[in-house]
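R.M. (postdoc): so does anyone remember the format we settled on? I'll just put the structure tokens first.
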């Protein structure tokens, strides 16, 4: 079995790699903001609800659940957008598997939105009922 070459401990502290990765992430955020209306809508939802979640949460656990569920929506939407971009890159011709991949990724976003509703409803119900 062939052994993989690694940079050892030096590679662990390669700040240049971290800096480049941060640049790739920033480019991904810019692309999502420019090209994905759904991401912009969900980011607006996050901007409005995250401070409210921080304020309504009685402790760190509740705050984490309220804000974290919103962050999860953004994460899943970014992955959905990435899957759509790859499928579109492969070809624009209709194909059953291409449609299936896009539909499944969209369903993941929907499930993450349901999670937000459930988490917020449970936390707020505990506060007021």
């Amino acid at each position: 079995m062939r052994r993989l070459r690694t940079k050892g401990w030096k590679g662990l502290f390669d700040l240049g790699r971290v800096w480049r990765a941060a640049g790739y992430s920033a480019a991904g955020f810019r692309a999502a903001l420019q090209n994905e209306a759904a991401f912009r809508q969900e980011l607006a939802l996050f901007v409005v609800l995250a401070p409210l979640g921080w304020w309504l949460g009685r402790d760190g656990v509740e705050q984490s659940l309220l804000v974290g569920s919103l962050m999860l929506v953004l994460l899943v939407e970014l992955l959905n957008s990435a899957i759509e971009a790859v499928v579109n890159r492969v070809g624009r011709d209709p194909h059953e598997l291409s449609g299936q991949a896009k539909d499944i990724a969209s369903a993941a976003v929907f499930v993450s939105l349901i999670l937000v509703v459930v988490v917020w409803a449970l936390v707020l119900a505990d506060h007021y009922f």
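R.M.: ...and that's the designed sequence above, right after the tokens. Also worth knowing: The mean pLDDT is 92. The longest helix spans residues 96-128.
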